[in-house]
Write a structure and sequence with these properties.
Layout lengths: L31 H4 L7 E5 L4 E3 L7 E7 L2 E6 L5 E7 L4 E2 L3 H4 L5 E4 L3 E7 H10 L1 H25 L4 H11 L1 E2 L2 E6 L3 H8 L3 H13 L3 E3 L6 E4 L2 H6 L1
Antiparallel strand pairs: 1-8, 2-7, 3-6, 3-8, 4-5, 4-7, 9-10, 10-12, 11-12
Helix pairs in contact: 3-4, 6-7
């Protein structure tokens, strides 16, 4: 898969100083001197749903800061199955592992239409060596990524099928409206939770019948949380 729409072809069109979520990503604490050290282009990119941002094992040329949309990180197990190991949302950094390994650890696939910034590795390495502020931010992002990965594994891969589905619903609430939830196709949910598609569908339907959630569309993607305590009980 390739990006359906790319607003810039590695020409350097990103305005990091005026980024709307700058305080959420890597350049939050940079000053004018730090920005003066950036000599490689940073691009604003857009990808359509289903597009591949980078492939597992692929040589890394940069990291991405996610500004809009959601991305799934997918790995292939030894028996050939695809497993979704994390879902990234605005403010997350995609491909951070490339700073240490120079390769990506997973496929990064757009779950929705996404907008992000691509930052060349040379920019990160230069600023990391010259700016204590960025070095600290990188360490914080590393720590947060490890915690998110541990939390994802603990919450979504252990417990009963009902508990896993409830935990996913709670994780996928909108940051600006925690009563609203956007889910994915049941096959993607099954891959995230290590459950069969039929099991996921059954558990979601049961939660609807129990008035824990209510559907907001006919596709079964948008829901409203009606009883959060029930979801937390699992």
């Amino acid at each position: 898969m390739i990006p359906i729409k790319t607003e810039s072809a590695w020409r350097g069109t990103s305005d990091c100083r005026n980024c709307g979520i700058r305080d959420m990503v890597l350049f939050a604490d940079l000053n004018e001197h730090d920005f003066g050290l950036i000599h490689a282009p940073i691009d604003d990119l857009e990808f359509k749903t289903g597009a591949l941002l980078h492939a597992e094992g692929g040589a890394a040329q940069g990291v991405f800061t996610l500004r809009k949309g959601t991305i799934k990180l997918v790995r292939v197990t030894t028996d050939g199955r695809q497993r979704i190991v994390r879902v990234l949302r605005p403010g997350d950094v995609v491909g951070l592992e490339a700073l240490a390994t120079t390769h990506y650890n997973s496929d990064a696939v757009a779950l929705t239409d996404v907008a992000l910034c691509r930052i060349p590795l040379v920019v990160i390495h230069t600023l990391g060596a010259s700016s204590q502020r960025l070095h600290l931010k990188l360490m914080q992002k590393w720590q947060q990524s490890l915690k998110d990965a541990d939390d994802w594994l603990a919450d979504l891969n252990f417990g009963t099928a009902r508990q896993r589905v409830c935990n996913l619903i709670l994780k996928m609430r909108h940051p600006d409206d925690t009563a609203c939830v956007t889910l994915f196709g049941r096959d993607d949910m099954g891959s995230m939770l290590n459950l069969k598609l039929e099991t996921v569908s059954r558990e979601v339907s049961r939660l609807v019948r129990e008035l824990a959630i209510e559907p907001l569309d006919k596709q079964g993607r948008a829901y409203r949380v009606l009883n959060e305590p029930l979801l937390r009980l699992g």
